[in-house]
From TrEMBL:
InterPro entries: DUF4886 (IPR032616), SGNH_hydro_sf (IPR036514). It holds the Pfam family DUF4886. Residues 36-163 form the DUF4886 domain. GO terms for molecular function: hydrolase activity, acting on ester bonds. Transmembrane segments: none annotated. This is DUF4886 domain-containing protein. It comes from the Bacteria.
Length: 311
């Protein structure tokens, strides 16, 4: 009697256990997404927290990088040309002693990204012919890869400079820098029949939000700052003010923890076409309520981009 009961109960659980085993096998067999970045410090910023988000979301991710500080599309292309002309030329191997061709040839890549140097991202004339040449060069090396553009962000509202404009001059505000850069990225992407990762759009959505936007501290004495004291920088997506041996430095260009987090959320949503809203990881310095808003903003921005790319 006892043996029969055990057998009967075991029989009930066999199908369930078998299904779980199959699901585990399918999950284990899912290939990792292989992502390759051709950029600079902005691509480093935007993907800083992407590995953590991907792990939490159950996605295996492999990232390859060809990044140089302040590097433009033109400079990346000129390095590639130098390597093709003479594989031994050091100019052609600026990525820790390797050329772009060498790095791209290290396996098969699923998604490859390109971006313009932020300072000139507002000037459409700086993209071509380099964007097109790089696109064609990459496609020959990785014909099955999806090549997209990473739309970088505008500098913080209290920046002392913004991007240069086509025909001369400079953008006057964060909004103008976002508008001009956005237009340039989309013009080039459309010409090459591809799309963009809308990081810059997500940054602007936060900067334009009355509740969540960064506002310069009006109570702080910037001309005679108190020693070892920084102004309030609540909701700043950029590095902003920092202390180095009691000296106050200012970086209105690069992303701080919140900006790096927002960028990674946008990349997560774009790459996996999946909402990051449910994810719980956040940098310790980003408050929970702000992190929640960044997750929502990232996904709303990505959804608009994905919808637009279908039409």
């Amino acid at each position: 009697m006892h043996i029969r009961t055990i057998s009967k109960q075991a029989g009930r659980f066999v199908p369930v256990l078998f299904c779980l085993f199959i699901l585990q096998c399918v999950s284990a067999q899912k290939p990792p997404l292989r992502l390759f970045l051709i950029g600079n410090s902005f691509s480093q910023n935007a993907t800083q927290y992407l590995p953590e988000l991907s792990r939490e979301g159950g996605h295996e991710l492999i990232i390859g990088r060809a990044e140089l500080g302040g590097c433009s599309l033109q400079r990346h292309w000129e390095h590639a040309v130098a390597a093709e002309a003479d594989p031994k030329d050091e100019k052609g191997k600026p990525y820790n002693g390797k050329s772009l061709k060498m790095l791209l040839s290290e396996g098969t890549w699923d998604v490859i990204t390109l971006q313009q140097y932020s300072k000139i991202s507002t000037d459409l004339s700086t993209y071509q012919p380099y964007a097109g040449k790089l696109y064609e060069y990459i496609h020959k090396l990785q014909p099955n890869a999806r090549i997209v553009f990473h739309q970088t962000w505008a500098y913080r509202s209290d920046s002392e400079d913004f991007g240069q404009l086509t025909g001369g001059g400079e953008a006057k505000s964060e909004k103008e820098m976002w508008e001009k850069s956005r237009a340039a990225y989309r013009t080039v992407a459309a010409a090459l029949h591809t799309t963009v990762i809308p990081t810059g759009d997500a940054f602007w959505q936060i900067s334009a939000d009355p509740k969540w936007a960064y506002r310069k501290d009006k109570q702080f004495d910037f001309k005679n700052p108190p020693q070892s004291t920084l102004p309030s920088q609540t909701h700043s997506l950029h590095v902003g003010y920092s202390l180095n041996k009691e000296k106050m430095n200012f970086d209105s260009h690069h992303a701080g923890p919140a900006g790096c987090y927002l960028g990674a959320l946008v990349w997560y949503g774009f790459l996996f076409q999946e909402s990051p809203v449910r994810l719980t990881f956040r940098p310790e310095t980003v408050p929970a309520d702000f992190a929640g808003q960044l997750r929502k903003t990232a996904w709303n921005t990505v959804k608009k981009e994905l919808k637009a790319s279908v039409h």
